[in-house]
Amino acid sequence: MTAFTFATAGRIAFGPGRSAELAAAVAALGSRPLVCTGSDPARHAGLIATIGNAATFAVAGEPTLDIVRAGAEAARAHGADVVVGLGGGAVLDAAKIIAALATNGGDPLDYAEVIGRGLPLEVRSLPVVAVPTTAGTGSEVTANGVVTSTEHRVKVSLRSASMLPAVAIVDPELTLACPPAVTAHAGLDALVQCIEPFVSPFANPLTDGFCREGIRRAASGLLRAYAEPGDIEARSDVSLCALLSGLALANGKLGAAHGLAGPLGGQIGAPHGAITAAVMVAVSEHNLAHAGQVALARYTEVGELLTGRSDPRAFLDWWAQAAAELGVPGLASLGLEDADIEPVAEAASRASSTKGNPVPMTTADLAGILRRSL
Ligand SMILES: NC(=O)c1ccc[n+]([C@@H]2O[C@H](COP(=O)([O-])OP(=O)(O)OC[C@H]3O[C@@H](n4cnc5c(N)ncnc54)[C@H](O)[C@@H]3O)[C@@H](O)[C@H]2O)c1
């Protein structure tokens, strides 16, 4: 039996309509909430209005170092004692980082991995209530927040067990307004986050269960949610896939698709889900060509969960069809140029996610994957 550790949000509330519980969840944790929203706070104005005594902070786009610095300042100015993240993964990550900076002080670069000093976040974060409005990242149950350094052109994490949200409220109704491209990119990211921990040598019996169910939910819901955005059953399947993917990645390890996504995201600034989806075929082809029996059996099971066919390549067939239906672009149309390939591959070879890949990846392997994903 593989040894494992499991940690997650203090409480997870899942199901259509559950966002009605947000105000009470916030009131139980504090009396001066800072509510982080996306660039358009009007989108959830009704829900925000239910939260008493709130100040709002709009996170426009993916969180940068300057955005989280400003958010921490807004939290201090409001005297915030609880932080709400209401938005896509970008907003949830910003909320978690802001909550950590509000109590620890200092600059995000003091704590950031890779480009920063990597100091531990020693003081407990403000409690966070995480409410995703996309179905993708699972950030509502992970212990890290991703931030972009525009100067270093890379995305890195701040990480601490106390960044796990106190409460995660996953209400698939909040995803009904997601435009098709967001549904596709976020949903494929969730699926990749279920596949990578499942084929990883760091898989454990708990993450395996999350991944299997997450892959099944993606198979039943993702294409339907894209084609029929108002289908709440399909939206619920993808929201559950995303939640399960967060549980899996926070308690297991990802793989080379996510190892590449960090430096690619910093370099080309394209949506995270579009990037992981764009590299997934070439990463999996490489893994299938070099995998041992255990990883091959895992890929076979992924294919079986998605298609019902017991064949290691069934997964790639499903992916090719889904990518065509969902309009997944290649890396060239996402902005990757030839000159970026070597530095991105070099950075990805050092990424912690790459170490979770079922087969070791050299910089040359990663560069080859990037070229095949153009
Ligand atoms: N912390 C983690 O564990 C983790 C894991 C994976 C990814 N991430 C990070 O999450 C981010 C990606 O998150 P994402 O895929 O949710 O995308 P996102 O948060 O960038 O949102 C994508 C777009 O959808 C819009 N949007 C959000 N909710 C909407 C709704 N209900 N209706 C209409 N539009 C809506 C947003 O305004 C944005 O324009 C990246 O920054 C990535 O690095 C974090």
Structure commentary:
The protein has 374 residues and is α/β, with parallel strands linked by helices. The protein folds into two domains: 11-174, Rossmann fold, CATH 3.40.50.1970; 178-372, Up-down Bundle (Dehydroquinate synthase-like, alpha domain), CATH 1.20.1090.10. It has helices spanning 22-27, 45-49, 65-78, 89-104, 108-111, 180-199, 205-227, 232-251, 256-268, 272-290, 293-307, 314-326, 338-350, 363-372, and strands at 11-14, 33-37, 55-58, 82-87, 128-132, 144-149, 154-159, 167-170. Helix 2 (45-49) links the parallel strand 2 (33-37) and strand 3. Helix 9 crosses helix 13, helix 10 runs antiparallel to helix 12 (314-326) and helix 11 crosses helix 12 (314-326). The radius of gyration is 19 Å and the shape is globular. The structure holds nicotinamide-adenine-dinucleotide. Residues 38-39, 62, 87-91, 93, 133-134, 136-137, 139, 142, 144-146, 155, 174-175, 177-179, 182, 186, 189, 272-273 line the site of nicotinamide-adenine-dinucleotide. Nicotinamide-adenine-dinucleotide is lined by residues 38-39, 62, 87-91, 93, 133-134, 136-137, 139, 142, 144-146, 155, 174-175, 177-179, 182, 186, 189, 272-273.
